[in-house]
Specification:
Structural class: alpha+beta
Helix content: 10-25%
Largest sheet: 5 strands, antiparallel
Radius of gyration: 17 Å
Shape: elongated
Order of helices and strands: HEHEEEEHEHE
Distance between the termini: 26 Å
């Protein structure tokens, strides 16, 4: 997002390969890595931050629902652009996409990006979906 933020200031002075990009995973802040809440608290406590950042592993998965539910529990931020898989229950994903894991992010549905609400609508309205996904490998 444009503006004078710590990320834009960082990106303006480092080589392109060291810039923080949309979709990157922040794995640790000032040596803290045990939970998202702890990471957020660490960011608020200091003016200087040391981050461990990982680029996402991106892949796509085609799932033919065959009129059954996807079987996914999903979480998202209202300001976000993805859906995070929090559980995989009985349904199309468990049967037809065994490589999908809890923690994977759904970025696009049938090539369409959007708000989390739009992504949910795209999934609900299609019998076959091509999910553009990302995963943190560390």
């Amino acid at each position: 997002r444009p503006g004078n933020t710590p990320v834009t200031r960082h990106n303006s002075v480092v080589a392109k390969e060291n810039q923080i990009l949309p979709g990157d995973y922040i794995k640790a802040v000032n040596g803290i890595s045990n939970s998202a809440t702890a990471l957020a608290e660490a960011v608020m406590q200091r003016t200087t931050l040391q981050l461990v950042v990982q680029r996402p592993y991106c892949f796509s998965m085609r799932i033919d629902r065959a009129h059954e539910p996807m079987g996914l529990d999903l979480n998202y931020s209202e300001k976000g652009t993805s859906l995070v898989i929090t559980d995989i229950g009985p349904g199309a994903v468990r049967r037809r996409a065994k490589h999908v894991l809890v923690g994977d992010r759904i970025l696009t549905v049938n090539g369409l990006a959007g708000t989390p609400e739009q992504l949910l609508m795209y999934i609900k309205n299609a019998n076959a979906v091509e999910l553009g996904m990302s995963r943190c490998l560390l």
